Predict the structure.
Amino acid sequence: MAVWIDHDEARVFHVDTETFDEATVQSPNHHVHRHPKDQQTRTHNHPDDEHRFFHEIAGVLAGADQVLLVGPSVTKLHFLRYAQKHDAMLGSRIVGVETADHPTDRQLVAHVRQYFHTDLPRRGTSP
């Protein structure tokens, strides 16, 4: 499986040799537009928003054997730390973290297939 993640959403891809499916998890602040001078429409991030977002992603990844994290920003690293702290089993199944801007679904799936179908040893696997 692979997760493309940024601060707005996580797209979770289950990829096999022939097909793939994708699920999207929206961040709690995904469609919130903020304007600092407009106090009536101003919203604030709740301190637990990121935790709930990551918890939902972890639920979608339940049962995954290996997970590749991909994304343009530090959110992927925050999720890795969350998984290592709150779900050690999931944390141990994250085998790679890579930076990628905004690939199309097909570009990401092609990368995932190449990543998982090479003879290179991966973290947590035996030769």
User: Anything to note?
Assistant: Residues 39-43 have pLDDT under 50 and may be disordered. The helical segments are 49-60, 75-86, 88-93, 105-116.
